[in-house]
Amino acid sequence: MIRMTLRLPEDVHVRLAAQAEADRRSLNSEIVHLLEVALAGVEVGMGELPRGE
Fold it and tell me: Quick one: angle between helices 27-39 and 10-22, nearest 10?
């Protein structure tokens, strides 16, 4: 697991925290869950960058 620092606008933090509470997850778990959902179906090989369309 990689540890990183993330800066968020205050309004995004408030929305994430509210969603995490509603989903009964920690803020960290909610962010990971949302990233996994957003990236579902996106495959990127090692060393490759995703291409914008």
Answer: 90
Nearest to 28 by CA among 6, 50, 53: 6
**pLDDT tens per residue across span 5-32:** 999 999 999 999 999 999 999 999 999 9
Cα–Cα distance for residue pair 29/23, rounded to 1 Å: 10
Q: How far is CA 5 from CA 1, 2, 8, 23, 24, in A?
A: 13, 10, 10, 23, 23
| Other Cβ atoms closer than 10 A to 27 | 14
Query: What is the pTM for the complete model shown?
Result: 0.74
Which amino acid appears at position 6 of this protein?
L
